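writing this on my phone so excuse typos. first protein, seq and then structure
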Amino acid sequence: MYYRCVARGCGFAGEADTMPGRCPACGGPLRACREEDLTGENWTNMGLRALNQDKDAEKAYRYLQRAAMQGDLRGINTLGWCLETGTGVAADPRQAIWLYNEAREQGYLPACTNFARCKQYGIGTRVDLKEAVQGYRYSAMAGFAHAQYLLGLCYLYGNGVAADQKRAAVWFRRAAEQGDVGAMARWAGCLEFGWGVAAAPEQAALWYERAAAKGNVFAQRCTGLNYRFGECGVKINAKEAASWFRLAADQGDLFAAYNLGMMYLQGEIPGGAAQAQPWLEYAAQRGLRHAMYRLHECLLQLGKVEEALKMLRTAAEAGHPAAQARLGYYYDVGWHMPANLEKMIYWYRRSAQGGGVLCLNNLGLCYQRGRGVEQDAHKAAELFSKAADAGDPHGMVNLGDCYLTGSGVGQDTARGVSLMAQAFEKGLVSAGDTLGKRYERGIGVSKDLEQAVAWYRRAAGKGNADAQYRLGRCYERGDGVLADAGQAVDWYRRAAEQDDAHGQYAYGRCLVHGIGCQTDPAAGQDMLSRAAAQGDSAAMCELGALVWTQDPARAVDWYRRAAAQDDCPAACRVLGDLYRKGEQVTRNLRKAAEYYQKAARGGSIDAMYQLGVLYEKGHGVPANTQKAYRCYLDAYQAGSSAACWALGRCAQEGRGTRRNGRQALAYYREGAGRGDGMCMYALAQCYFTGRLVPQSLRQARLWCSRAQAAPLEAGQQRAVTHLQHLLDDAAMQK
């Protein structure tokens, strides 16, 4: 039976076996009626109720058909939506746009907006951006909020109109003030980042929270970030942050799930690693690299070492920077072994072989290095010459090196190479290895990797362990020869079998990680231990890194031992990171600065950059923007891509150097070309805002998309994600 409410202005109608006592909508009286007595409005209300409350799409479609037959504009428009989306019926975009047009021609604003949207995206018709904008503008001028929001997007991205952030902000604001949730989130973004309006972070926070309360997932995440990190003038409140993250995560937002997991993991809210694991797993399993990396830390806290190592490797293979750095530490730390300088071991071994003529060579080394005698390059060359004249191949090699570098004698490349070749022909196989190093590094000769490989191969073929190790490294890297992991492992193995520490380290690393061979962690760790027992710092670093997952305190101890050696800047850099972050040690920025300074002196690029950050912020050292700029410059000249962003920012803002927009843009471009996410974001901002470059949303989308895929810290993630959210919409619209 059918019935409807007779209360004035209600319009409620329904279909049921028995009639309710009172109207569910207004509580008024109900009266039975015939089917033909129901109005188009009645059928529309019944259809919407079936759709939204009863979740019966097929029934809703039947009701809406009846509404449309009676000419109810809301029913016609909603029926068009059903046909567009395939709700309750097979999708038919052409029929949908026909219905939208029917209602549009009678002035129904939602239908005008839907018709324009179909024109914009080519739903059931060809794309016509200008007609779409006209439709949006018609409805927007008449006060329809959703059309105002969509028109704002057109102005923001330049779809059918010239891009104009100010006009976009105007329309976002009008729609937001009428309660359109998408517009509220957009308007909040404009206020936060100053897009088209003066930046007003506090107002942005209010609008984010209003949109979040209405269910906008992006706004929920942003509100959570505000409460977690105290952004946009919001007071830090972990409980509020977690609440908003949970709402967004329950709707599938990966970054919200990640942040919620991190709050548990870092003790910002009670629950610890056990509560963090499912949220981090959810984000990690869906490809979020930040979550993969943090999940391995979570698993370590839970004692799941094997799973943690697997996840760490997964994160590194996916390109996460911190995971790659952690695996890098495994190559750079020592464990349970006093550090020994490689060159000292090498040259003492040479001395142990000698006597008589060889003593001339050894004495020459002492003069060359100033060990036990006053340093004298001319005297060293004289002694090397005497040893060479006496037929000592070691003297030939060292004299040849003097000629290559011009140390104590006039530089003569041809004679230097000739002397080393003579030493090799006399049976000193290591001479071939030494000459290979010179060609590899370009010391005294033009850098020539193919020549380096040729000499390494000759020496390796005669059993020289160091040449075998270096030839293996050339095969692994593809330096001067086609990369071949299998050949690399074979040469590493030959060197290791001769008890060469470098060969043991390299072969052990391959066994542990399955590089060019079957993975065998036990044999690999045994080989690494043999290398470490000989004082090989790289092997000690690898072992220490492997132990990190089992006993981080012991790993820190190894970092400290390695840092005490003058040839281990990597350990100093790691300790600087640990003291800066407070990981496994009490946070101490002064110690962090000291370790970074030592690492920077040893050539660590990351340490140079981090030292610049400390000087810029005044953390652990007195604030000094000029020193910060010099540190960034040193890191940049050494190849740091992150330093490009720092230098670009300094040049753009005039921090520690003169303001120079052209130079800033050059740094951003170079850093972006090197894969730095923040340089990519800086370029995206420049193109989006028209600062330093002509405005180009296409370029902004390109660079922001690349930045989103690049590794970013939590504090940087937020702005990039917000901009990416806007640009993703633009890409979809176009």
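second protein below, same order as before
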Amino acid sequence: MFIRKVNIIICVLILSVAIYAQKKSDSISYAYPHDITVSGLQLQTTGVQQSFQPRIITGDKIGNEGRGFAADEIFRMLPGIKIDNQANGARVHVSMRGIGILSERGIRGINFYLDGVPLNDPSSFAPDLFDVDANNIANVEVLRGCGNSLYGRSSAGGIVDIKTKVFRDEKLSGEASHTFGSNRYESSNAVFGAAAGKFGFNLSASHTKGDGYRDHTSFYNDNYYGQVNFLSEHNLWLNVIGGYSHTYHQNPEGVSLADYNSNPKIANGDAAPFNEGLETERLTGAITGYISVAEGVNLRVLTHIKHTFFTEANNKVFTHREFTTPGGSMYAEFGYGNPGKFGAHEIQLGIDGQYQQITERQFDNYHSQEGDTLRSNSKIKQSGIGAFITDRFCLGNNLFVNANLRVDNMKNELTDELKSSGDLSGDRNFSNISGKIGLQYQIMEKLNIYAGWGQGFLPPATEELVNNPVTYGGFNSNLSSSTSGSFELGLKDSRFEEVKYEVVGFYMTTKNDFDRFRVPGRGDATFYRNIDGSRRIGAEISADLTLCKELKLDVAYTYSKFTYKLDNPMQILMNIDTRYIQDGNVLPNSPEHQVGLNLSYSPVTAVTAVITMDAFSKSYIDGSNKESEACDGYALFGAALSYTARSLNDATVSVRFKNIFDKKYVAFSEPDPDGNSYQPGAGREMFASIKVHF
């Protein structure tokens, strides 16, 4: 029945596009191509008012406060997003508006795109951001709040769209940089490109390595990325994308509270003897296209494929996974009526889908030596398909409405090829229909008030399904999908260069939210279960202030009140004591207050000094909210000084300091049956770099 609904919707979408493509009436008077940024995303309009307000980070603001390598340095000034750097490298844990906060690692509830290519898999889980080179970022556009009806499965927290740099000079141009610093950190990067006539290309390469702050936290990352694009005289645009990344991270794991207090650099006692770590190698190819097929009707197409090899060693097993992930999307957009006048519409109709095949094998870990005993051998097939319709229309007098509807179907099929504990083969399928509606009123030019309500849908992710708490191999058959509903109200003011600000408040409820736990005797493997639900109340404030010509201040503040909503107390599996999650308790790893500050001073054009602060209030390590095990609040201060030689093609020399006062703090915490574990953050660090342009 569900598949029939999907097929009907797809047929209606295609038929609607065909009808509008043939329509020649004078009512279609506004063609959008020249107002639309070419991208794989649906909401990339500049000519139409939106009730979904994006926050944009430009590339020149990235990397000014640290190494410019890990995601915590890219997104630190975005309210509503929390990045936990677990090992002083590129492996991070990401959450937005508390969605994904209960996962151990990776990205849940946020859809990430790199030049329109999704980084999430069919279950909408993004295991890492290793394909993103911070030195190659032109800008980052972030849409917070439920975007499920726009961008599909697992957009309950929001969407992040990353655009890479483009060089449009006819002559070859670009930039190269080298950075070195504390803990034997070293990074070399180059980005360059050219354009001639209808063709252009851009290439980037980087190599990064370091020992990390703690014992057993060495890492390296190689990243190669390129684009070749073509624009014809007939408004046909094609972009071919290729990328390769190879990353290895030693994993120090968390330590007890006593070990954290005595020596924050120490690794877990099992980490080095079992050589715990993660290695990821990924090859990506994609083609994106855009064409104007008729007056006011435009078609966008994306096709991509990724191939990934992943190996993880914990203190029990080596896990090997091979992923093949093809996918694509197609949608049409057309305008109706005169922009800004009553009855004007921008409509988008489309479908998107991904397929993934995973081969997983597990072997015993005998103190960093891989054993011969095969613990699990599975093949997993996943597919996700969605169809959507969006309509942005004008009610007149600067009043605009966005309405979206989407249907999703996600399938998982596992074949147990070992059958050591019986046949663990099975399938898990999830489907959902979701919507969102938003309203924006333009009080005056560049001053907008907006409100929106939307639904979120999170099927169990790959990482959650394949970690079976009952035995090695097979799916976690107890998991169901999570749904959410969210309302937000905001004000955005960008009228003045001296003062730009945005204030947003939201209220979100979830059902069957995901909770992580560990099982005695299964080592450091993390497993997942559903809880009754949660309630999230939050506020996000950002401001860019020009105090005077030479002095600028950026502020980002997040208020988060994330609590459990339970019908009955839930027991936490512990060996050391008995504890419960009570209704109204605060979600783990969720500080109530989060503040980011950037104060920059440029006495002359060539010199810039920056002072930074990142502050977090107290957070709890598990849902029982035990005060004696809570992670204390902290504030980290940093500074940077750079000099740019205009006479040498804008060559820049800079020095940066992180955590100047060597503050001890917990970067990430997680539950453990033998006593909760803490992952200490990096102490004082210094980095120096030189960047040249050519």
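Helices lie at 2-22, 71-74, 148-151, 257-262, 462-466. thats all i got for now
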